[in-house]
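#onboarding

Welcome to the new folks! Below is a worked example of what a typical request in this channel looks like: someone posts a single protein sequence, and someone else replies with the predicted structure as tokens. Don't worry about understanding the tokens yet, we'll cover that in week two.

Example request:
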Amino acid sequence: MKMKHEAITNAFLELTKELSMTEKKGFSGVGLVLYENMSTLSQYHCDLVDDDKKIPQLKVGSRDLVAYLNEITDYQHPYHDGFHFINSEGFLTHVAQFFSPPVNKQVKNIQGQGARTYCAQCGSFIDGVLMVGSVSSKKYTHLFEKGLIYAYSDIDCISSR
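Example response:
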């Protein structure tokens, strides 16, 4: 059963906030995609790692998911690069995905941010994507919903609407 839209997006926001507050050395940053329809997303991603990943059945809201994502976002971990996907039921479904959404001419690069953040914003326009989050290695955090930008300043969420 799908979580209600507001409940899953709030849980996704909280997960992204928790990851942005990691104290871990070696944190490479993280990209997260919250989606409801994989068929519309399939043409925009592929695995970055060749092995058969065993993705644990972890759900948004669990301490285990935060711990797992903190573990794999270390520069030394083979899954640290790319985006990690979470479905509308709240389960982690894909890790270390090359995510290449179409360029959207409405998107202007956010000063000082790189490709992960730009991809996150462009990717948020894809049908079937609910929200995309990007946390840089310096902990700059951006969340996008159909191009709208949400950014965290310390613990408070600021919306640019």
